[in-house]
Design goal:
By secondary structure, the protein is mainly alpha-helical. The chain has 12 helices and no strands. The termini are far apart.
Length: 253
Amino acid sequence: MLDHHKAWFEDHVRSFLTGHPQDDRHILLKKDHSLKVLAEAMDITACLDIPARLRDTVHLGALYHDVGRFTQYSRYKTFREDRSVNHGLLGCLVLRQTPALDCLDREQAGLVRAVVAVHNRREVPGRLPKDLDLAVRVVRDSDKLDIMRIMLAHFKPGAQKSDVVTLHLADEPGGFTPSIVEDIRAGRIGRYASMRYVNDFKLLLISWVFDLNFPASRRAFHNRGYAEELLGSLPERPELTGLKDRIYEALND
């Protein structure tokens, strides 16, 4: 079944390629990201004792979680929600208007669409049905882990830069927003709306340790050195000291 969906996804992505190198690079970035999020989700579900049907649903939610990104970028040339649309809700609409989920029964298709619709909220909505809650949490963790890979590669000296990837934030080496630092100190995830600088994006990524839901996710985050690399890329400012202890406390919880 998964091979069928991957083939549909490949065809869908191909329909957005224009031959324009910069635009195609961003489309292919999201294609590669989606496939890697699927792989991350498969690693997490391998550690969970869940029924095969729910496992398959989680994997489809992971594969399709960013299906709205292609339409979003094609229309608006950005991945910022405040300059375009909510890509989770747009992805849900895409899945309703295309035959992507036609091979699923109504219940499973609805669950996949729901995962796509809510995966990008700042926090998991309360009182979700049990299966939906688990599927959303796996997809969110998987999404975060691969976004770390993408952004750390982008932040490296000499890497090819993209204003789209860094959400059009100001790249000022010493600039950061204190409220995001306060969110981390309080054990909260940062807010996209608060970001002004590229360093704010780094801080937001660091804050995601407070929203990792599974031991496998926290192990991957820790073992890959994501926190250490992000913290090491921030400016040496007194306001940022002490964040390391708070982050590692969360990872080891």
